[in-house]
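User: I'm writing a short report section on ligand binding and want a predicted complex to refer to. Could you take this sequence and uridine-diphosphate-N-acetylglucosamine and write out the structure as tokens? A short remark afterwards would be nice.
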Amino acid sequence: MPERLKVATVVGARPNFVKVAPLHHAIEAHNALGVAPLIDHVIIHTGQHYDDAMSAQFFRQFSLPRPQHHLDVGSGTHAEQTGTTMIRLEPVLAGLSPCWVVVVGDVNAALAGAITAKKLNLRVAHIEAGLRSNDWEMPEEINRVLTDRICDLLMTTSEFADANLRAEGTSPSRIVRVGNIMIDSLVKFLPTAETIPPERILGCNPGDDFVLLTLHRPSNVDSESQLRAIMTALVEIASELPVVFPVHPRTKQALERVGAVMQPGIWFAAPLGYVEMLALQNRARVIITDSGGIQEEAMMLGVPCVTLRTTTERPETLKVHGGTSRLATLTVDGIVASFREARGESRRRVSLPMWDGHTAGRIVAALVTHS
Ligand code: UD1
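Assistant: Sure. The structure tokens for the complex follow:
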């Protein structure tokens, strides 16, 4: 085993930051013990997300250092974003020559990082491996499958993910179940989030019972007819409970394109920081979302949830598997019916093996053991 271990983590988009923060702090805790090998952790930011609200505020809230390398890739088509990331990442990784390259989740940064690193003959570990929606129209599904196919170490969240990998013929020696690193952030920040009242986040009080909505999947917002159906359903839902809606930049552009206007009962907000979002999730009566991470957070908080999708790569979040969510039929009536069903349910905290706040420590141990 080497005296020092260099680990380079590639991040690009908002959900990555929630996951790299616990990893970085677990590496610091490991180094504080003074036991070999000490780990040099290098964070490489591709620049896929670049607004303060989508990126820098997360580095501040999570006390993450500034990334040592910033590739400034920015927005673009999938080919532009993935290709530019690879071109700019290659000399950085070649210069660093790390023992491990770590990629996270299913965003373009993960696929670009994995391909670039493997072609440099570097060893790559994938955090959140094995998730499958089996929906090949999702860009993330392509990223998940291709990333897992070439990574050396596949760190998984649950038995569902392990089973997906095994069914694809992955050698069990490449699979390590570590749990869900995003829940490490939830466990750490929930006590703070519990002290923040919604009115401090939103400027006024939406009331004791409100719906929290997030929406950003291309299948929901880039299709004008689908977005109109969702907005029509929301007007009906908002006549029953106020809807708090922090708007993702992709969704803001889509709403502007369809000429969406303010509606009574719908509280539009700018993208929020992690702690503010967690505070609202924790207080919400119902969460309606198309985000994979928020489905998982809703389940851990026990909040009834409606998943605005026809598939999910996170089946454990569904009620049929003990979670708190359901897939909505994506029509006006289907969405409203799912909301009413969720509204009729009470809060129910769920616990899953290794979704316990200690996943980052298990990841550090796996990187050291497999070096
Ligand atoms: C990306 C991820 C998605 C993840 C989501 C979280 C991929 C394929 N998609 O989708 O899996 O759930 O991030 O947010 O990697 N924009 C800004 N400011 C920013 C970033 C983006 O205004 O800081 C705008 C740009 O107009 C851009 C659009 O948002 O074109 C979409 O951003 P992009 O990163 O391409 O995809 P997301 O929808 O954010």
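A remark for your report: Residues 13-15, 48-51, 54, 75, 106-108, 139-140, 216, 248-250, 253 surround uridine-diphosphate-N-acetylglucosamine (CB under 6 Å). Residues 181 and 359 are 5 Å apart (CA to CA).
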